[in-house]
Amino acid sequence: MRATVGDQLVQHGRVVGQHDKVGEIVEVMGQAGTPPYRVRFEDGHVGVCAPGPDTEIRHKETGPSMGR
Q1: In degrees rounded to 5, what are phi and psi of residue 49?
Q2: Alpha carbon 68 to chain centroid, angstroms
Q3: Contact 24/8 with Cβ under 8 angstroms?
Q4: Residue 58 and residue 31: Cα distance in Å, rounded?
Q5: Where is the DUF1918 domain (predicted)?
Q6: Cβ contacts of residue 42 below 8 Å, gap of 6+?
Q7: Which of 20, 51, 59, 68 could share a disulfide with 55, CB 3.0–4.6 Å?
């Protein structure tokens, strides 16, 4: 798993009715984009995350796509 500052970290809910937690990566603490990450969640909480299998990284867009 690799990420850059500005990417979204999404922790999927593990049980029925539990919502996903979405946050913005504000610091990459590992080497070459690897975890751990400092993440600011939608509720304002900032924490350090070492993502597990229930987590995905949504990469920020790098700019407009050519030819679309």
Answers
A1: -125, 135
A2: 26
A3: yes
A4: 19
A5: 1-57
A6: 21, 22, 23
A7: 51
